[in-house]
Design goal:
Blueprint lengths: L1 E3 L2 H9 L7 E3 L5 E4 L9 E8 L4 E10 L5 E6 L4 E5 L5 H10 L7 H19 L7 H14 L9 H11 L7 H12 L1
Antiparallel strand pairs: 1-2, 3-4, 3-7, 4-5, 5-6
Helix pairs in contact: 1-3, 4-5, 5-6
């Protein structure tokens, strides 16, 4: 299962004297950008899981809710992403670079410079890397709302269910039932 490497990254590294393959196999920890399909965006995300049997990858913060309220990661085909910043901790990947760049001696200094150039490219093309997830912001909002006698009517059902889970209450039912359960639990 391979994904193409971003063309701009390959050109930048080629100008610095390093050759990149056009594509490489995907690994957990790679920073990718979804360029085709449902989750297409201009932001980079990290690969959370690679399912080799199902030939799908799962990226962070690309989820959906089932009808019972459980949240699942949405599978993506590897061809729908572009690798923006590969994870070079795998020795097989370093051997791949050694094959492509036979004249380069891979010392720790060269590798750190190489990875710094990738991080710099990612920051230039996509802006600063945001580590805060969407779930954290909704949890923060829920916590601030609860502290001020929460306005449960303006919250979405997943936010209400998160608040119920935090209080250890059941999460099944319609929105009105969830709100009643939260108001009864907070009093």
């Amino acid at each position: 299962m391979a994904a193409p490497i971003d063309r701009g990254l390959r050109e930048r590294q080629m100008a610095r004297g390093f050759m990149y393959p056009r594509s490489m196999s995907v690994r957990k920890g790679d920073r990718v950008m979804i360029v085709r399909g449902e989750g297409k965006s201009k932001s980079a995300t990290r690969i959370a899981k690679v399912d080799r049997k199902g030939r799908k990858i799962y990226v962070e913060n690309f989820t959906y809710f089932k009808s019972d309220g459980t949240e699942l990661q949405r599978p993506i085909d590897a061809s729908n992403v572009v690798i923006i910043n590969p994870d070079w901790s795998d020795m097989r990947r370093r051997k791949l670079l050694s094959r492509v760049n036979e004249s380069v001696e891979w010392t720790d200094e060269v590798i750190s410079d190489f990875e710094a150039a990738e991080d710099e490219y990612e920051a230039e093309t996509l802006g600063p890397v945001e580590e805060e997830t969407e779930e954290e912001t909704s949890e923060d909002k829920t916590e601030t709302d609860e502290g001020e006698d929460a306005d449960y009517d303006s919250m979405t059902v997943p936010q209400l269910k998160d608040a119920l889970k935090e209080k250890g209450l059941p999460v099944s039912g319609k929105k009105a039932e969830l709100i009643d359960r939260l108001k009864g639990g907070s009093e």
